[in-house]
Amino acid sequence: MRPLNLFLLCSLALHPCILYGQADTIARSKKIRITPLPVIYYSPETRLGFGALVAANFETTKHPDTLTKSSYAQTYFLYTVNRQYDWGTSTRIYMPENKFVFYGKFNYTFFPEYYYGIATEDPLSKKDTIQYNRIGADVRLYKKLKRHYFIGAATRFNRIANVDGGTTGHFVEDKPLGYEGYWLWGFAPAFAIETRDNFVYPRKGFFLEVLYYLYPSWSGESYRLQNFKLDIRKYFPVHWISPIDALAFQFLANVNTGSVPFKDLADIGGSYTMRGYYTGFYRYANLYAFQGEYRTNVWKRLGFTVWLGGALTPEKWYTFFDHSFKFNAGVGLRIMINRKDRLNVRVDQGFGNQGQSGFYLDIAEAY
């Protein structure tokens, strides 16, 4: 879900709804924990908007066991008085004993956004407004090798269409690669290590994922490029304030070579990485980002977090200090809406360089 200046999220009920469905003719019931949420929000780009979000936690086994992780899915639809819309869904499904893991993310959007230039250290001087349609899909399938090690394959599709940057302004002057629209379809081998105790709110364990995408040039509207992604996360349980406190750390690398269109460059900002920056405030070929966060519960369903982070944006993957260090920090409020799965509504306020700040409201932790 994209960051918004004002994003009010009101739960239909603090306790999740419980739905039952019969798996077969035998008298068995499988529990699915559903949390529906109406959405009301406002931003300068969209004015008043509204929609709905539904999150679900469920099991793929007929009987509870300690080997299979809980699966998770989320879908939302947003609509504005400007006739703009954003639909998205994501899921992570663990088959029995985690022998196979499926990850899928799909979205269709039409939203205006600010353009801040490409590979510039003075983004505010390039500020412009653009709008476009986007269709995106990101699918990964993993097979467990042994214990916590997985190997698999991934595919990603990205279509940017109906780009409108006006007839004057920095966007049409810059003419960044893909400014008239483009599409990419790539494939990647994938490797992962997964020891987290919980996908929604991990308190201990380790996660690593490596992807190397190859994007062929399928047509005149697509580009040939390679993209390497490395995601490393480590969690430590602590008991400084409450029994469910945790320290969470993440390192993220996003390295690109070839002809990379502007919306597929490594950008800074958003609800997950480098919170506090408008998405795309900095946009470079390469990104190395780090963040550390302390999470705690203070009273009943209420908790808070604090975090520090930073990023390097080199022109080549090995020239780390080509540009300035991008710093971010922030605080957040947590409202637990599902105690069993430790599912939180996440309210964050982040801060960055050049007076950047961002307010975010989402569901589940950033990482």
UniProtKB/TrEMBL annotation:
Signal peptide coordinates: 1-23
Key words of the record: Signal
Name listed for the protein in its UniProt record: Bacterial surface antigen (D15) domain-containing protein
Organism: Chryseolinea soli
